[in-house]
Amino acid sequence: MAQRYVRVQTPSGQLRYGLLLLDRKVQLLDAPPWLKGQATDLELNPEDYQILSPCAPSKIVAVGKNYIKHAAEMGTEAPAEPLLFLKPTTTILPPDAPILYPPQSQRVDYEGELALVIGDRCTDISPEEAQSKIWGYTIANDVTARDLQKKDGQWTRAKGFDTFCPLGPWVVREISSAAMLQTFINDDPNPVQSAPISEMTFSPEVLVSYISQVMTLLPGDVVLTGTPQGIGALNVGDRVRVEIEGIGCLENPVESRVAQEKTKIG
């Protein structure tokens, strides 16, 4: 099994990076792994930590319509060059935490994606150079208020709500280009999305190179590589699970933002 790099919170509130061991203990690192963090002698037992999203990026750069069949289901052709947008870092959500359905929207969609974690500063690099700048891979769900995306004519609000970027549960260093990405809703064994990541129009290396010619990528930054066809609506009460071979699965429930706020007030 590939090494799984995690970011955890202890009961006292400390945030630490570590290696998830087979017995679910976490061997702590002295720094984020992409900043050359080294293993220490300290370990946390499973009851002594909570898994968070595996990194705390300065920015999330996302790519739209990077699978031809998804572009077609959106009623467009695949872009001639990568279509970029940003998601706020406040959208990041750890595994098992609830996606909050905003009252402004009547149609919120899942979008399972492969996410890249950048390991080194990237400015104006080639695709060949980009291969060594991608430190690892994790899973993301680019949750989108589809009706607001259509209404606004741009994507900031639709993709920018708090909790709209579930990320995790851990980072692995390598992944096969033939790995399958699948999304499941509730207990249905049939995936609503299913495609090999090799169907991307623009490969991870090309994406990182292209982005680096626009903005500097920093260690720990996240790149979302696009979603395959099969997008669809989420409803309050659903659980959505995104699986990628060689990484694992990212699962989150869907709750009403209004109901949660009322609960907090009460």
Explain what this protein looks like in three dimensions.
- The protein folds into two domains: 4-51, Roll (SH3 type barrels); 60-265, Fumarylacetoacetase-like, C-terminal domain (Fumarylacetoacetate hydrolase, domain 2, Alpha-Beta Complex), CATH 3.90.850.10.
- It is built from six helices and 20 strands.
- It has helices spanning 68-73, 127-130, 146-152, 156-160, 204-212, 257-265, and strands at residues 4-9, 15-20, 26-29, 39-44, 50-51, 60-64, 83-87, 92-93, 99-101, 108-110, 112-118, 134-141, 144-145, 165-172, 180-185, 193-196, 222-224, 232-234, 239-244, 248-256.
- The strands form four sheets. It has a seven-stranded mixed beta sheet with strand order 7-6-17-11-12-14-8.
- Strand 19 (239-244) and strand 20 form a beta hairpin.
- The protein is globular, with a radius of gyration of 18 Å.
- The termini are far apart.
- The mean pLDDT is 95.
Give a brief rundown of this model:
With 266 residues, the chain is α+β, with helices and mostly antiparallel strands.
Secondary structure topology:
Layout: E1 4-9, E2 15-20, E3 26-29, E4 39-44, E5 50-51, E6 60-64, H1 68-73, E7 83-87, E8 92-93, E9 99-101, E10 108-110, E11 112-118, H2 127-130, E12 134-141, E13 144-145, H3 146-152, H4 156-160, E14 165-172, E15 180-185, E16 193-196, H5 204-212, E17 222-224, E18 232-234, E19 239-244, E20 248-256, H6 257-265
Parallel strand pairs: 6-17, 8-14, 9-20
Antiparallel strand pairs: 1-2, 1-5, 2-3, 3-4, 6-7, 10-13, 10-18, 11-12, 11-17, 12-14, 15-16, 15-19, 19-20
